[in-house]
Amino acid sequence: MKRLEAADRHRVGLTLNGRAASGWAEPRMLLSDFLRHALGATGTHVGCEHGVCGACTVRLDGAPVRACLTLAVQAEGRRVDTVEGLAPEGTLTDLQQAFRRHHALQCGFCTPGILMSLAAWLETRPVPDESAVRALLSGHLCRCTGYSGIVAAALEVARAQAAKSGDD
Ligand code: FES
Ligand code: FES
Protein backbone atom coordinates (compact mmCIF):
# COMPACT_ATOMS: atom_id res chain seq x y z
CA MET A 1 0.00 0.00 0.00
CA LYS A 2 1.27 3.46 -0.89
CA ARG A 3 2.58 5.35 2.10
CA LEU A 4 0.72 8.57 2.76
CA GLU A 5 3.08 11.40 1.95
CA ALA A 6 2.94 14.64 3.95
CA ALA A 7 1.96 16.38 0.71
CA ASP A 8 -1.17 14.19 0.54
CA ARG A 9 -2.49 15.77 3.71
CA HIS A 10 -4.27 19.06 3.92
CA ARG A 11 -4.49 21.45 6.83
CA VAL A 12 -8.22 22.02 7.35
CA GLY A 13 -9.19 25.14 9.24
CA LEU A 14 -12.76 25.77 10.29
CA THR A 15 -14.86 27.30 13.02
CA LEU A 16 -15.94 24.60 15.43
CA ASN A 17 -18.68 25.60 17.82
CA GLY A 18 -17.68 29.24 17.49
CA ARG A 19 -13.94 28.76 17.87
CA ALA A 20 -11.18 28.48 15.31
CA ALA A 21 -9.91 24.93 14.97
CA SER A 22 -7.65 23.12 12.55
CA GLY A 23 -6.11 19.74 11.93
CA TRP A 24 -4.55 17.57 9.26
CA ALA A 25 -6.77 15.55 6.99
CA GLU A 26 -6.14 13.13 4.18
CA PRO A 27 -8.05 14.04 1.01
CA ARG A 28 -10.72 11.39 1.54
CA MET A 29 -11.02 11.72 5.32
CA LEU A 30 -14.62 11.99 6.43
CA LEU A 31 -15.75 14.98 8.44
CA SER A 32 -17.02 12.61 11.14
CA ASP A 33 -13.54 11.08 11.54
CA PHE A 34 -11.88 14.48 11.36
CA LEU A 35 -14.08 15.86 14.13
CA ARG A 36 -13.58 12.86 16.36
CA HIS A 37 -9.94 11.96 15.73
CA ALA A 38 -8.27 15.22 14.66
CA LEU A 39 -10.28 17.68 16.74
CA GLY A 40 -11.37 15.48 19.66
CA ALA A 41 -15.06 16.32 19.20
CA THR A 42 -16.27 12.85 20.07
CA GLY A 43 -19.84 13.95 20.76
CA THR A 44 -20.49 13.30 17.07
CA HIS A 45 -21.28 9.61 16.90
CA VAL A 46 -20.61 7.25 14.02
CA GLY A 47 -23.00 4.40 13.34
CA CYS A 48 -23.55 3.17 9.80
CA GLU A 49 -20.94 5.35 8.07
CA HIS A 50 -23.03 5.50 4.91
CA GLY A 51 -25.70 8.06 5.49
CA VAL A 52 -28.50 5.95 6.87
CA CYS A 53 -28.65 6.24 10.66
CA GLY A 54 -28.24 10.00 11.20
CA ALA A 55 -26.04 9.55 14.28
CA CYS A 56 -23.25 11.66 12.77
CA THR A 57 -25.43 14.69 11.98
CA VAL A 58 -23.70 18.03 12.53
CA ARG A 59 -24.44 21.50 11.21
CA LEU A 60 -22.37 22.93 8.37
CA ASP A 61 -22.94 26.66 8.06
CA GLY A 62 -26.16 26.04 9.93
CA ALA A 63 -27.53 23.23 7.79
CA PRO A 64 -27.73 19.70 9.19
CA VAL A 65 -25.49 17.33 7.24
CA ARG A 66 -24.34 13.75 7.58
CA ALA A 67 -20.72 14.07 8.67
CA CYS A 68 -20.08 10.57 7.30
CA LEU A 69 -21.09 11.76 3.82
CA THR A 70 -19.05 14.94 4.00
CA LEU A 71 -15.32 15.16 3.45
CA ALA A 72 -13.27 17.03 6.02
CA VAL A 73 -11.81 19.22 3.26
CA GLN A 74 -15.33 20.34 2.34
CA ALA A 75 -15.56 22.00 5.75
CA GLU A 76 -12.50 24.16 5.12
CA GLY A 77 -13.25 27.76 6.11
CA ARG A 78 -16.78 26.95 7.17
CA ARG A 79 -18.73 26.85 10.41
CA VAL A 80 -19.28 23.44 11.96
CA ASP A 81 -21.50 22.99 14.97
CA THR A 82 -21.63 19.78 16.95
CA VAL A 83 -23.50 18.66 20.03
CA GLU A 84 -20.68 19.96 22.23
CA GLY A 85 -21.59 23.48 21.14
CA LEU A 86 -25.18 23.32 22.35
CA ALA A 87 -24.32 23.89 26.00
CA PRO A 88 -20.72 25.10 26.13
CA GLU A 89 -21.05 26.53 29.63
CA GLY A 90 -22.99 23.52 30.90
CA THR A 91 -26.43 25.11 30.88
CA LEU A 92 -28.63 22.80 28.87
CA THR A 93 -30.69 24.24 26.06
CA ASP A 94 -34.48 24.14 26.28
CA LEU A 95 -34.44 21.19 23.89
CA GLN A 96 -31.92 19.26 25.98
CA GLN A 97 -33.93 19.93 29.14
CA ALA A 98 -37.07 18.73 27.36
CA PHE A 99 -35.23 15.55 26.36
CA ARG A 100 -34.52 14.96 30.03
CA ARG A 101 -38.10 15.58 31.09
CA HIS A 102 -39.55 13.32 28.42
CA HIS A 103 -36.97 10.52 28.75
CA ALA A 104 -36.14 11.07 25.11
CA LEU A 105 -32.89 9.14 25.32
CA GLN A 106 -31.76 5.84 26.67
CA CYS A 107 -28.34 4.70 25.42
CA GLY A 108 -27.85 8.15 23.86
CA PHE A 109 -26.11 6.91 20.74
CA CYS A 110 -28.56 8.59 18.36
CA THR A 111 -29.07 11.65 20.56
CA PRO A 112 -26.36 14.07 19.35
CA GLY A 113 -27.47 13.75 15.74
CA ILE A 114 -31.13 14.13 16.61
CA LEU A 115 -30.43 17.17 18.77
CA MET A 116 -28.56 18.86 15.94
CA SER A 117 -31.37 18.25 13.45
CA LEU A 118 -34.05 19.37 15.89
CA ALA A 119 -32.06 22.46 16.91
CA ALA A 120 -31.93 23.54 13.26
CA TRP A 121 -35.64 22.84 12.86
CA LEU A 122 -36.51 24.86 15.97
CA GLU A 123 -34.57 27.84 14.65
CA THR A 124 -37.07 28.04 11.79
CA ARG A 125 -39.76 28.82 14.40
CA PRO A 126 -41.91 25.97 13.09
CA VAL A 127 -45.58 25.41 13.63
CA PRO A 128 -45.63 22.67 16.31
CA ASP A 129 -46.71 19.75 14.23
CA GLU A 130 -46.22 16.11 15.11
CA SER A 131 -46.11 14.90 11.53
CA ALA A 132 -43.33 17.39 10.75
CA VAL A 133 -41.30 16.15 13.71
CA ARG A 134 -41.83 12.54 12.72
CA ALA A 135 -40.84 13.33 9.12
CA LEU A 136 -37.63 14.94 10.39
CA LEU A 137 -36.95 11.95 12.64
CA SER A 138 -37.35 9.58 9.71
CA GLY A 139 -33.74 10.48 8.92
CA HIS A 140 -32.58 9.24 12.30
CA LEU A 141 -32.55 5.70 13.61
CA CYS A 142 -33.09 5.16 17.32
CA ARG A 143 -33.12 1.59 18.54
CA CYS A 144 -34.14 2.39 22.13
CA THR A 145 -36.85 4.96 22.65
CA GLY A 146 -39.66 4.27 20.22
CA TYR A 147 -39.40 7.98 19.36
CA SER A 148 -42.38 9.07 21.49
CA GLY A 149 -40.31 10.95 24.06
CA ILE A 150 -38.27 12.62 21.33
CA VAL A 151 -41.42 13.79 19.56
CA ALA A 152 -42.91 15.03 22.83
CA ALA A 153 -39.75 16.96 23.70
CA ALA A 154 -39.52 18.60 20.28
CA LEU A 155 -43.19 19.57 20.29
CA GLU A 156 -42.99 20.97 23.81
CA VAL A 157 -40.18 23.33 22.83
CA ALA A 158 -41.85 24.28 19.54
CA ARG A 159 -45.10 25.03 21.37
CA ALA A 160 -43.30 27.12 23.98
CA GLN A 161 -41.58 29.09 21.23
CA ALA A 162 -44.85 29.62 19.40
CA ALA A 163 -46.59 30.77 22.58
CA LYS A 164 -43.74 33.14 23.37
CA SER A 165 -43.75 34.68 19.90
CA GLY A 166 -47.54 35.10 20.24
CA ASP A 167 -46.93 37.10 23.44
CA ASP A 168 -44.27 39.34 21.83
S1 FES B 1 -22.92 7.36 10.68
FE1 FES B 1 -23.51 8.92 9.31
S2 FES B 1 -25.56 8.48 8.82
FE2 FES B 1 -24.92 6.80 10.04
S1 FES C 1 -31.42 6.32 22.65
FE1 FES C 1 -30.38 4.49 22.06
S2 FES C 1 -30.31 4.60 19.90
FE2 FES C 1 -31.56 6.27 20.48
Describe this structure in words.
The chain is an alpha+beta fold and 168 residues long. A hairpin with a 2-residue loop joins strand 3 (57-60) and strand 4 (63-66). The protein has helices at residues 31-38, 94-101, 111-123, 130-137, 148-167, and strands spanning 10-16, 19-25, 57-60, 63-66, 79-81. Residues 105-111, 142-145 line the site of one FE2/S2 (inorganic) cluster.
Question: What are the key terms here?
Answer:
168 residues, alpha+beta, globular, 5 helices
Topology:
Elements: E1 10-16, E2 19-25, H1 31-38, E3 57-60, E4 63-66, E5 79-81, H2 94-101, H3 111-123, H4 130-137, H5 148-167
Parallel strand pairs: 1-5
Antiparallel strand pairs: 1-2, 3-4, 3-5
One FE2/S2 (inorganic) cluster binds at residues 105-111, 142-145.
Q: Average the pLDDT over all residues and give the rounded result.
A: 95
Specify the structural class: alpha+beta
Described by its quaternary structure, the protein is single chain
Output the strand order for the largest sheet: 2-1-5-3-4
| Bound ligands, named by name, code or SMILES | FE2/S2 (inorganic) cluster
- Unreliable stretches covering 5 or more consecutive residues: none
- Helical content stands at 25-40%
Distance between the termini: 63 Å
Largest sheet entry = 5 strands, mixed
Sheet-strand content, in percent, reads: 5-15%
CA-based gyration radius: 17 Å
Q: Based on DSSP secondary structure assignment, what is the total number of beta strands?
A: 5
Coarse morphology: globular
State the helix count. Answer: 5
Helix-strand topology string: EEHEEEHHHH
